Amino acid sequence: MKKSTFILGVISTFLVLIGGAFKIQHWPGAGICLTLGVVLFAFVYSIMLMIDKNALAQNSFQKFVNVITMVAMMLIPVSFLFKAQHWPGAGIGIFIGNFILLAMIPILFAHGSKESDPVKKLNFNNEAILLVLLTAFSFFIWLVLHSVS
């Protein structure tokens, strides 16, 4: 399952990148390619990734983090697709997705501070820092797209 998840992630990322390049150049097929890539990423890859991660999860907190991460992985790309395609509701979806990520940051830091194992503590802190970077990048892209349209 890990190999198929990886392959699907690569294919969906490739489709999104090609669709984005086509969209920038105003070439035909951009919307179809971008939509297909985002749908594959958001609704197939994120679910497969969560299933793989939940198989390795050691406690219910890690499963909770995996589910919340999957929801954010579904909501934010779909919202950016809505923004790129000029469909209504994009701003609300991006805002809710970023709020979910922001809510997870203190939860991860608090849970990481309670860990006695230094490796697990470092993993939780790394996940929280990664979410900070992802949220900052998402806000930046949202602001850039918001100022353009």
Explain how this protein is built.
The structure is a single chain. The protein is mostly helical and 149 residues long. The protein has two domains: 1-56, no CATH class; 59-149, no CATH class. It has five helices and no strands. The protein has helices spanning 2-25, 30-56, 60-84, 90-114, 118-148. It starts with a helix and ends with a helix. 26% of the residues are buried.
Task: Tell me the Rg in angstroms.
Answer: 17 Å
Give the beta-strand count: 0
Point out poorly predicted stretches.
none
Order of helices and strands: HHHHH
Instruction: Please tell me the total number of domains.
Output: 2
The residue fraction in helices comes out at over 70%
What is the structural class? Answer: mainly alpha
**Span from first to last CA?**
41 Å
Number of helices: 5
Brief account:
The protein is globular, with a radius of gyration of 17 Å. The chain has 149 residues and is mostly helical. The protein has helices at 2-25, 30-56, 60-84, 90-114, 118-148.
Which key terms come to mind for this protein?
89% helix; globular; 2 domains; mainly alpha; 149 residues
What does the secondary structure layout of this molecule look like, with pairings?
Elements: H1 2-25, H2 30-56, H3 60-84, H4 90-114, H5 118-148
Helix pairs in contact: 1-2, 2-3, 3-4, 4-5
